């Protein structure tokens, strides 16, 4: 099977728009992992992503008649820019359907290359449906983002360059995976030229459609996907890409949001470049895989696949980086409310850097302190600290993996709900960053519930995150849950979340 793609990849027409990107040695990461690590720098393409390869190869293989009618694509970013660049180079009319939530920087980049942008829907699936309408109405050709042999072959030229640049087989190659185009193309090439090299696909843990398909033995459609690594936020792996991946990929693993944030920092420290979350995904997976399998002395390469991220999103990434590295922990500690207690507590923490202290008087007996502090990664340092504090008489809660604590509560410490607020329910909700989205959510709730708490932070992403408390009579709780579900936004009930209970709920 992989042989059939070799000819396609060798004959792929990509270099009219793409450049042969370098393979850079990563000395800091190499020392940290005890392996020889290399980065394939696809973030250095003209559109700051590998996507121009597959888009151009697909269009270069289309008939003149089809090109004359123009092309349509649906994308929230990198594929859109690849299609726009290819169309500009070939002098072809292009319409790109992008979700309304797409950041302006990406919309402007597509328009600057002469493509017509149609803003439609909140997410990719709605934009894709609109693109199909345009295909049927105008007779234009749809350019798939990944599930097409010519697109796969175009992306596979990344592996062709790696093989030539490295000269000898690597032990491991880590490739990010969304719909699977890049992973399928690279794995097919390496299966033929470097059969002993293990190709590892890496997906976000909240958008792992290819891993789910491998486990089931067939393609599955995820009910919902996380949007942090938006370049890989795909509900279902492609049909053709999955066929290739099953036969050529050694394994598919996942990485968490915090691990991806840490990888963005890792890339910056070795290259001074800032990758987008999906662009850092393979590095996050490489670190995780090397630790899990205790790899030492191996040669490994990870693809830095893109660098299209909003500048203001870096606030969120930097905030989560140290936790992703397990160099920072977030804990809650109950201390006595008396003179000298806070100083005694600080002494109990020992000589370590404190990254955050949040505290407010609660009552005459006790106080809770929300603490961020540095810990030694890949060790039992945090566990020992918690045990030592407990032995000293402190009640300790570890919130390092508590999303509500990290996203909201740490910014809200300042007062608990009054005793009279006995019927509060709390929800964490993700909603699309577009005009009217929040009002749509509030309209669905109706007028039966009074909002008792609200927190929202903009992270420069397509989706906003809120923590909302509502006063709900006991007989109306099921109705509220149904109303929130009817909106279609991702949400989690957090009424029993320990961070909420300790810092924001009733005493």
Describe the structure in brief:
With 507 residues, the protein is α/β, with parallel strands linked by helices. It contains 20 helices and 18 strands. It is globular, with a radius of gyration of 25 Å.
Please characterize this protein's 3D structure.
The chain has 507 residues and is an alpha/beta fold. Among the domains are: 51-142, Rossmann fold (3-Layer(aba) Sandwich); 326-401, 2-Layer Sandwich (Alpha-Beta Plaits); 417-503, Alpha-Beta Plaits (2-Layer Sandwich), CATH 3.30.70.260. Helix content is 41%, strand content 21%. It is built from 20 helices and 18 strands. The chain has helices spanning 2-10, 27-33, 51-60, 64-69, 78-90, 104-111, 124-138, 149-166, 181-193, 209-216, 239-248, 257-271, 277-292, 314-324, 341-349, 381-391, 403-407, 437-445, 477-487, 498-503; strands at 23-25, 36-41, 71-74, 94-98, 116-119, 141-142, 172-176, 198-204, 251-255, 299-304, 328-336, 354-359, 366-374, 395-398, 424-432, 450-457, 463-471, 491-493. It has a six-stranded mixed beta sheet, with helices on both faces. The chain has a four-stranded parallel beta sheet with strand order 5-4-3-6, with helices on both faces. It has a four-stranded antiparallel beta sheet with strand order 12-13-11-14. Strand 3 (71-74), helix 5 and strand 4 form a beta-alpha-beta unit. Helix 3 crosses helix 5 (78-90) and helix 12 packs across helix 13. The longest helix has 18 residues, at 149-166. The protein starts with a helix and ends with a helix. The model has no long low-confidence stretch (mean pLDDT 89).
């Amino acid at each position: 099977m992989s042989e059939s793609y070799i000819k396609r990849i060798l004959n792929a027409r990509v270099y009219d728009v793409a450049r042969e990107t370098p393979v850079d040695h990563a000395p800091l990461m190499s020392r940290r992992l005890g392996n020889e690590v290399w980065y394939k720098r696809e973030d250095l393409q003209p559109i700051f992503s590998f996507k121009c390869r597959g888009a151009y190869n697909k269009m270069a293989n289309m008939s003149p008649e089809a090109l004359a009618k123009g092309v349509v694509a649906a994308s929230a970013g990198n594929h859109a820019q690849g299609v726009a660049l290819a169309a500009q180079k070939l002098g072809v009319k292009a319409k790109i359907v992008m979700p309304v939530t797409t950041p302006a920087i990406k919309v402007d980049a597509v328009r600057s290359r002469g493509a017509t942008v149609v803003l439609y829907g909140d997410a990719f699936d709605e934009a894709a449906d609109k693109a199909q309408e345009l295909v049927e109405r105008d007779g234009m050709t749809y350019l798939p983002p990944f599930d097409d042999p010519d697109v796969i072959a175009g992306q596979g030229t990344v592996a062709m360059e790696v093989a030539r640049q490295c000269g000898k087989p690597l032990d491991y190659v880590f490739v990010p995976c969304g719909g699977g185009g890049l992973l399928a193309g690279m794995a097919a090439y390496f299966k033929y030229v470097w059969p002993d090299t293990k190709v590892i696909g890496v997906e976000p843990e909240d958008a792992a459609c290819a891993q789910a398909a491998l486990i089931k033995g067939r393609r599955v459609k995820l009910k919902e996907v996380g949007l942090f690594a938006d370049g890989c936020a795909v509900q279902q792996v492609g049909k053709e890409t999955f066929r290739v991946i099953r036969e050529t990929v050694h394994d598919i693993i996942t990485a968490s949001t915090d691990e991806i944030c840490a990888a963005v920092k890792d890339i910056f420290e070795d290259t001074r470049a800032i990758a987008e979350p999906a662009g850092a995904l393979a590095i996050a997976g490489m670190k995780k895989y090397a630790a899990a399998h205790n790899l030492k002395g191996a040669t490994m390469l990870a693809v830095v696949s893109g660098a299209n991220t909003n500048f203001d999103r870096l606030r969120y990434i930097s905030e989560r980086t140290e936790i992703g590295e397990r160099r920072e922990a977030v804990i809650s500690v109950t201390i006595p409310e008396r003179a000298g207690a806070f100083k005694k507590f600080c002494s109990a923490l020992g000589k370590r850097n404190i990254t955050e202290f949040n505290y407010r008087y609660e009552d005459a007996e006790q106080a809770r302190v929300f603490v961020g502090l540095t810990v030694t990664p890949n060790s039992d340092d945090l566990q020992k600290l918690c045990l030592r504090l407990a032995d000293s008489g402190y009640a300790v809660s570890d919130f390092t993996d508590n999303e509500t604590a990290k996203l909201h509560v740490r910014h809200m410490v300042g007062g608990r709900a009054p005793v009279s607020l006995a019927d509060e329910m709390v929800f964490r909700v993700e909603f699309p960053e577009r005009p009217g989205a929040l009002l749509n959510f509030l309209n669905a709730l109706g007028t039966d519930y009074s909002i008792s708490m609200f927190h929202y932070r903009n992270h420069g992403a397509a989706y906003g995150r809120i923590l909302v408390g509502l006063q709900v009579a006991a007989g109306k709780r099921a109705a509220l849950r149904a109303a929130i579900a009817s909106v279609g936004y991702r949400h989690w009930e957090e009424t029993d979340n320990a961070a909420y209970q300790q810092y924001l709920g009733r005493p």
